[in-house]
Amino acid sequence: MKIQILNEFIVLADKKNYSAAADFLYISQSSLSKHILNLEDELGFTIFDRNTRNIELTPYGHKLLEYSKAICDLYNGSILKIKDTIDNQNEIIRLSSIPVMPHYAITNEITNFKLNHPFAKFVITEHDSAELLNLLLTNQVDLAFMRIEDVKSAHIEYVPFVQDEMVVVLPDEHRYAKNTTIHISLLKDEEFLFLHENTSLYTICVNVCKAAGFAPNIVYTGHRIENILDLIEKGMGISLLMSKHVEYYHDTNVTIVNLHPKTTSVIGLCKVKNHELSINSQKFWNIVKAKHIK
Protein backbone atom coordinates (compact mmCIF):
# COMPACT_ATOMS: atom_id res chain seq x y z
CA MET A 1 0.00 0.00 0.00
CA LYS A 2 1.48 3.34 -1.08
CA ILE A 3 1.28 6.62 0.86
CA GLN A 4 0.20 8.28 -2.39
CA ILE A 5 -2.92 6.07 -2.54
CA LEU A 6 -3.80 6.84 1.07
CA ASN A 7 -3.47 10.55 0.32
CA GLU A 8 -5.81 10.14 -2.65
CA PHE A 9 -8.27 8.27 -0.45
CA ILE A 10 -8.21 11.08 2.15
CA VAL A 11 -8.89 13.72 -0.51
CA LEU A 12 -11.72 11.71 -2.05
CA ALA A 13 -13.27 11.19 1.39
CA ASP A 14 -13.18 14.95 1.89
CA LYS A 15 -14.45 15.99 -1.56
CA LYS A 16 -17.04 13.15 -1.83
CA ASN A 17 -16.81 13.50 -5.59
CA TYR A 18 -14.40 11.82 -8.01
CA SER A 19 -14.24 14.78 -10.39
CA ALA A 20 -13.50 17.34 -7.66
CA ALA A 21 -10.94 15.08 -6.00
CA ALA A 22 -9.17 14.31 -9.31
CA ASP A 23 -8.93 18.04 -10.10
CA PHE A 24 -7.49 18.73 -6.66
CA LEU A 25 -4.92 15.95 -7.04
CA TYR A 26 -4.06 16.86 -10.66
CA ILE A 27 -4.73 13.34 -11.89
CA SER A 28 -7.37 11.91 -14.20
CA GLN A 29 -10.69 10.72 -12.80
CA SER A 30 -10.14 7.28 -14.29
CA SER A 31 -6.74 6.95 -12.56
CA LEU A 32 -8.23 7.95 -9.22
CA SER A 33 -11.10 5.46 -9.62
CA LYS A 34 -8.66 2.68 -10.51
CA HIS A 35 -6.45 3.46 -7.50
CA ILE A 36 -9.42 3.35 -5.10
CA LEU A 37 -10.70 0.06 -6.58
CA ASN A 38 -7.20 -1.45 -6.24
CA LEU A 39 -7.09 -0.26 -2.65
CA GLU A 40 -10.43 -1.93 -1.89
CA ASP A 41 -9.21 -5.15 -3.55
CA GLU A 42 -6.07 -5.07 -1.43
CA LEU A 43 -8.01 -4.44 1.78
CA GLY A 44 -10.75 -6.93 1.03
CA PHE A 45 -13.64 -4.63 1.91
CA THR A 46 -15.56 -1.69 0.42
CA ILE A 47 -14.63 1.77 1.69
CA PHE A 48 -17.08 3.89 -0.33
CA ASP A 49 -20.83 3.65 -0.82
CA ARG A 50 -21.37 4.51 -4.49
CA ASN A 51 -25.17 4.28 -4.48
CA THR A 52 -25.62 8.04 -3.93
CA ARG A 53 -24.78 10.97 -6.20
CA ASN A 54 -21.97 12.05 -3.88
CA ILE A 55 -20.05 9.06 -2.63
CA GLU A 56 -20.04 8.37 1.10
CA LEU A 57 -17.73 6.39 3.34
CA THR A 58 -18.82 3.00 4.57
CA PRO A 59 -18.29 2.19 8.28
CA TYR A 60 -15.04 0.47 7.26
CA GLY A 61 -14.10 3.55 5.25
CA HIS A 62 -14.57 5.81 8.27
CA LYS A 63 -12.24 3.64 10.33
CA LEU A 64 -9.69 3.50 7.50
CA LEU A 65 -9.83 7.30 7.14
CA GLU A 66 -8.89 7.73 10.79
CA TYR A 67 -5.83 5.50 10.46
CA SER A 68 -4.90 6.85 7.01
CA LYS A 69 -4.69 10.42 8.33
CA ALA A 70 -2.50 9.28 11.21
CA ILE A 71 -0.22 7.30 8.87
CA CYS A 72 0.13 10.17 6.37
CA ASP A 73 0.72 12.72 9.13
CA LEU A 74 3.42 10.50 10.62
CA TYR A 75 5.02 9.92 7.22
CA ASN A 76 4.98 13.60 6.20
CA GLY A 77 6.23 14.66 9.60
CA SER A 78 9.11 12.20 9.50
CA ILE A 79 10.13 13.36 6.02
CA LEU A 80 10.12 17.01 7.11
CA LYS A 81 12.17 16.15 10.21
CA ILE A 82 14.71 14.26 8.13
CA LYS A 83 14.94 17.12 5.60
CA ASP A 84 15.33 19.60 8.45
CA THR A 85 18.14 17.51 9.89
CA ILE A 86 19.92 17.35 6.53
CA ASP A 87 19.45 21.10 5.98
CA ASN A 88 20.78 21.87 9.44
CA GLN A 89 23.82 19.70 8.85
CA ASN A 90 24.55 21.34 5.52
CA GLU A 91 23.70 24.86 6.78
CA ILE A 92 21.30 25.49 3.90
CA ILE A 93 19.30 28.74 3.92
CA ARG A 94 16.04 28.13 2.09
CA LEU A 95 15.10 31.67 1.10
CA SER A 96 12.38 33.01 -1.17
CA SER A 97 11.38 36.51 -2.21
CA ILE A 98 8.94 38.55 -4.24
CA PRO A 99 10.47 39.15 -7.71
CA VAL A 100 12.11 42.52 -6.92
CA MET A 101 15.29 41.45 -5.14
CA PRO A 102 17.71 43.92 -6.78
CA HIS A 103 15.24 46.82 -6.47
CA TYR A 104 15.22 46.50 -2.70
CA ALA A 105 18.89 45.53 -2.26
CA ILE A 106 17.89 42.03 -1.17
CA THR A 107 20.55 40.60 -3.46
CA ASN A 108 23.12 42.82 -1.71
CA GLU A 109 22.02 41.46 1.67
CA ILE A 110 22.43 37.89 0.42
CA THR A 111 25.85 38.42 -1.17
CA ASN A 112 27.18 40.32 1.86
CA PHE A 113 26.11 37.47 4.11
CA LYS A 114 27.76 34.96 1.80
CA LEU A 115 31.02 36.92 1.87
CA ASN A 116 31.06 36.83 5.66
CA HIS A 117 29.79 33.23 5.89
CA PRO A 118 31.45 31.44 2.94
CA PHE A 119 30.21 27.98 4.01
CA ALA A 120 26.56 29.04 4.00
CA LYS A 121 24.52 27.54 1.16
CA PHE A 122 21.55 29.45 -0.22
CA VAL A 123 18.63 27.92 -2.11
CA ILE A 124 16.77 30.94 -3.47
CA THR A 125 13.44 31.14 -5.31
CA GLU A 126 11.11 33.95 -6.39
CA HIS A 127 7.32 33.91 -5.97
CA ASP A 128 4.43 36.29 -5.49
CA SER A 129 3.39 37.06 -1.92
CA ALA A 130 0.41 34.68 -1.79
CA GLU A 131 2.66 31.78 -2.81
CA LEU A 132 5.35 32.84 -0.34
CA LEU A 133 2.94 32.67 2.57
CA ASN A 134 1.98 29.11 1.64
CA LEU A 135 5.63 28.09 1.20
CA LEU A 136 6.43 29.35 4.69
CA LEU A 137 3.44 27.68 6.33
CA THR A 138 4.16 24.34 4.63
CA ASN A 139 7.85 24.47 5.59
CA GLN A 140 9.08 24.56 2.00
CA VAL A 141 11.18 27.64 2.75
CA ASP A 142 12.59 28.98 6.01
CA LEU A 143 12.66 32.71 5.26
CA ALA A 144 10.86 34.95 2.78
CA PHE A 145 11.07 38.60 1.77
CA MET A 146 7.52 39.77 1.13
CA ARG A 147 5.21 42.75 1.58
CA ILE A 148 4.06 42.74 5.19
CA GLU A 149 0.58 43.82 4.03
CA ASP A 150 0.27 40.26 2.69
CA VAL A 151 1.20 38.61 5.98
CA LYS A 152 -2.29 37.41 6.90
CA SER A 153 -1.46 34.63 9.30
CA ALA A 154 -0.99 34.71 13.06
CA HIS A 155 1.66 32.01 12.62
CA ILE A 156 4.07 34.35 10.77
CA GLU A 157 6.44 36.86 12.30
CA TYR A 158 8.54 39.41 10.42
CA VAL A 159 11.12 42.14 10.73
CA PRO A 160 10.79 45.20 8.46
CA PHE A 161 13.57 45.41 5.88
CA VAL A 162 12.82 48.40 3.67
CA GLN A 163 9.96 50.84 3.10
CA ASP A 164 8.88 52.09 -0.31
CA GLU A 165 6.41 54.71 -1.52
CA MET A 166 4.00 54.62 -4.44
CA VAL A 167 4.56 57.17 -7.23
CA VAL A 168 2.87 58.12 -10.48
CA VAL A 169 4.90 57.29 -13.60
CA LEU A 170 4.10 59.40 -16.65
CA PRO A 171 5.40 60.03 -20.18
CA ASP A 172 7.66 63.10 -20.21
CA GLU A 173 5.14 65.02 -22.32
CA HIS A 174 2.13 64.26 -20.09
CA ARG A 175 0.09 67.25 -18.90
CA TYR A 176 0.93 66.45 -15.26
CA ALA A 177 4.62 65.75 -15.89
CA LYS A 178 5.72 69.12 -14.41
CA ASN A 179 3.75 68.58 -11.18
CA THR A 180 5.64 67.74 -8.01
CA THR A 181 2.58 65.95 -6.59
CA ILE A 182 -0.61 64.54 -8.12
CA HIS A 183 -3.82 63.74 -6.28
CA ILE A 184 -5.02 60.29 -7.25
CA SER A 185 -8.49 61.63 -8.14
CA LEU A 186 -7.00 63.58 -11.07
CA LEU A 187 -6.07 60.30 -12.74
CA LYS A 188 -9.59 58.86 -13.04
CA ASP A 189 -9.69 59.30 -16.84
CA GLU A 190 -6.20 57.90 -17.49
CA GLU A 191 -5.28 54.57 -19.06
CA PHE A 192 -3.29 52.48 -16.58
CA LEU A 193 -0.49 49.97 -17.09
CA PHE A 194 -0.21 47.70 -14.04
CA LEU A 195 1.76 44.69 -12.89
CA HIS A 196 -0.10 41.39 -13.26
CA GLU A 197 -3.31 40.93 -11.30
CA ASN A 198 -1.87 38.07 -9.23
CA THR A 199 0.68 40.45 -7.67
CA SER A 200 0.05 42.25 -4.41
CA LEU A 201 1.02 45.56 -6.02
CA TYR A 202 -1.86 45.22 -8.49
CA THR A 203 -4.29 44.93 -5.58
CA ILE A 204 -2.72 47.91 -3.83
CA CYS A 205 -3.01 50.07 -6.97
CA VAL A 206 -6.64 49.12 -7.64
CA ASN A 207 -7.57 49.79 -4.01
CA VAL A 208 -5.91 53.22 -4.08
CA CYS A 209 -8.00 54.14 -7.12
CA LYS A 210 -11.21 52.77 -5.63
CA ALA A 211 -10.60 54.69 -2.42
CA ALA A 212 -10.54 57.86 -4.57
CA GLY A 213 -13.93 56.97 -6.01
CA PHE A 214 -13.10 55.42 -9.38
CA ALA A 215 -12.22 52.08 -10.96
CA PRO A 216 -8.98 52.33 -12.95
CA ASN A 217 -9.13 51.88 -16.73
CA ILE A 218 -6.49 49.13 -17.02
CA VAL A 219 -5.25 48.64 -20.57
CA TYR A 220 -2.22 46.45 -19.80
CA THR A 221 -1.01 44.03 -17.12
CA GLY A 222 2.27 42.18 -17.14
CA HIS A 223 5.02 40.68 -15.00
CA ARG A 224 7.93 42.86 -16.13
CA ILE A 225 8.33 46.40 -14.85
CA GLU A 226 10.66 47.34 -17.70
CA ASN A 227 7.89 46.58 -20.21
CA ILE A 228 5.53 48.91 -18.36
CA LEU A 229 8.15 51.68 -18.33
CA ASP A 230 8.85 51.24 -22.03
CA LEU A 231 5.14 51.50 -22.85
CA ILE A 232 4.83 54.63 -20.70
CA GLU A 233 7.83 56.17 -22.45
CA LYS A 234 6.05 55.55 -25.76
CA GLY A 235 2.90 57.28 -24.54
CA MET A 236 0.73 54.18 -24.10
CA GLY A 237 -0.52 55.12 -20.65
CA ILE A 238 0.58 55.80 -17.07
CA SER A 239 1.24 53.64 -14.03
CA LEU A 240 1.32 53.51 -10.27
CA LEU A 241 4.54 51.85 -9.16
CA MET A 242 6.75 51.79 -6.12
CA SER A 243 9.48 54.40 -6.22
CA LYS A 244 12.39 51.97 -5.91
CA HIS A 245 11.02 49.94 -8.83
CA VAL A 246 11.34 52.93 -11.13
CA GLU A 247 14.59 54.25 -9.68
CA TYR A 248 16.25 50.92 -10.41
CA TYR A 249 15.73 51.61 -14.13
CA HIS A 250 17.33 55.05 -13.85
CA ASP A 251 18.00 55.43 -17.58
CA THR A 252 14.30 55.22 -18.53
CA ASN A 253 12.88 58.39 -20.07
CA VAL A 254 9.76 58.75 -17.93
CA THR A 255 8.65 61.26 -15.31
CA ILE A 256 8.12 60.31 -11.68
CA VAL A 257 5.65 62.37 -9.64
CA ASN A 258 4.73 61.98 -5.98
CA LEU A 259 1.27 60.59 -5.27
CA HIS A 260 -1.26 62.08 -2.86
CA PRO A 261 -2.52 60.64 -0.55
CA LYS A 262 0.79 59.02 0.32
CA THR A 263 0.80 55.24 -0.04
CA THR A 264 3.64 53.18 1.39
CA SER A 265 4.57 49.52 1.45
CA VAL A 266 7.07 47.69 3.66
CA ILE A 267 9.10 44.67 2.61
CA GLY A 268 9.84 42.41 5.55
CA LEU A 269 11.80 39.25 6.18
CA CYS A 270 9.29 36.65 7.37
CA LYS A 271 9.40 33.27 9.08
CA VAL A 272 7.07 30.92 10.89
CA LYS A 273 6.84 31.64 14.62
CA ASN A 274 8.75 29.20 16.82
CA HIS A 275 10.14 27.36 13.77
CA GLU A 276 13.66 26.11 14.47
CA LEU A 277 15.96 27.50 11.79
CA SER A 278 19.30 26.18 10.62
CA ILE A 279 22.27 27.93 12.20
CA ASN A 280 22.92 30.10 9.15
CA SER A 281 19.24 30.87 8.59
CA GLN A 282 19.07 32.10 12.19
CA LYS A 283 22.22 34.19 11.67
CA PHE A 284 20.72 35.75 8.52
CA TRP A 285 17.48 36.51 10.41
CA ASN A 286 19.42 38.07 13.28
CA ILE A 287 21.48 40.30 10.98
CA VAL A 288 18.40 41.65 9.21
CA LYS A 289 16.61 42.08 12.53
CA ALA A 290 19.52 44.02 14.01
CA LYS A 291 19.29 46.75 11.35
CA HIS A 292 15.54 46.72 10.60
CA ILE A 293 13.78 50.05 10.09
CA LYS A 294 12.19 51.58 13.18
UniProtKB/TrEMBL annotation:
Belongs to the LysR transcriptional regulatory family. Transmembrane segments: none annotated. CDD domains: PBP2_LTTR_substrate (cd05466). Gene3D superfamilies: 3.40.190.290, Winged helix-like DNA-binding domain superfamily/Winged helix DNA-binding domain. One of its GO terms (molecular function) is DNA-binding transcription factor activity. This is LysR family transcriptional regulator. It comes from Mariniplasma anaerobium. Keywords: DNA-binding, Transcription, Transcription regulation. One of its GO terms (cellular component) is cytosol. InterPro entries: HTH-type_LysR_regulators, LysR_HTH_N, LysR_subst-bd, WH-like_DNA-bd_sf, WH_DNA-bd_sf. It comes from the Bacteria.
